[in-house]
Amino acid sequence: MSPFPFENLYLEFKSSLGRVVLIADPHIGFEISRGVRIRTGFEERLASFINELDPDLLVILGDLKEPLGMSFTLKRFLMGFFSELREMEVVLTKGNHDGRIEEVAESFPNVSVVEHFLLDGKLFLHGHTKLPDVEFEEAYLGHVHPTYSIVRGGVSRKAKVFMRAGKFLVLPTINPYIEGFDVREGVRMVPFLRGIRSVELFLPEGVYIGTINL
Fold it and tell me: Taking the CA atoms of the chain, what radius of gyration do you get in angstroms?
């Protein structure tokens, strides 16, 4: 099986808890919600990729799953995903799609489901609710699935991007089957970013696009 293009859609850094890998919006079970008739094996390959990175801590910025409910099939997908990650600590900052996720997570002592997570001055959260009343130096969130249309040679191509607004950094979805929202639309989905006038954009490979006025 050819590898999925997960590279550059995650962040990795050192912390007081060891090496941290940070991903956003996997949307496991998207096949169920979107009527995909073939089995993609997305969550299996994502788990394999994370295991290759071998972090001490995996932080998932919400929307681990896509269907709002918890069907037998979705539960099987999630159980398989968590089973592959038993050798590391996992923190899920609960997203708007993560209802009833505790029904699966409670079977795995290494998995914590929280509203937000604070580590070494860094705040991690999904981004669909108001900002928690905590002090932080930098915040990381998902929810927006930021993309930007790049025009080259007269052809427009929508690309996933990292979006920075002051001390907030928004990650793109790690799911290669899900594109996302234009940054101008997406920023309005985050209650505490609605007053932002401009953002800086970076392509996943690190190329700086520039400042975009909203």
Answer: 17
Q: Comparing C-alpha atoms, which of 53, 39, 60 is closest to residue 125?
A: 60
Q: In residues, how long is the chain?
A: 214
Q: What is the pTM (predicted TM-score) of this model?
A: 0.95
Alpha carbon of 2 to those of 5, 45, 147: distances in Å?
A: 9, 10, 24
Which residues make Cβ contacts (< 8 Å) with residue 207, sequence separation at least 6? none
Distances (CA, A) of 143 to 16, 134, 149, 156, 203: 26, 20, 19, 24, 18
Domain 11-213: state its class: alpha beta
Tens-digit pLDDT profile for residues 108-139: 999 999 999 999 999 999 999 999 999 999 99
- Alpha-carbon gap, residue 32 to 44, rounded angstroms: 16
CA distances from 157 to 147, 170, 177 (A): 10, 20, 16
| Positive/negative CA dihedral, 113, 117, 119, 124 | positive
100 burial level (CB within 10 Å; 0-12, 13-18, 19+): middle
Structure tokens at 147: 């993309």
pLDDT 10s digits, 24-65 = 999 999 998 877 767 789 999 999 999 999 999 999 999 999
Q: What is the pLDDT of residues 180-193, one digit of tens each?
A: 999 999 999 999 99
Residue 200 — pLDDT band, cuts 50, 70, 90?
very high
Alpha-carbon distance of 170 to 61, in angstroms, equals: 10
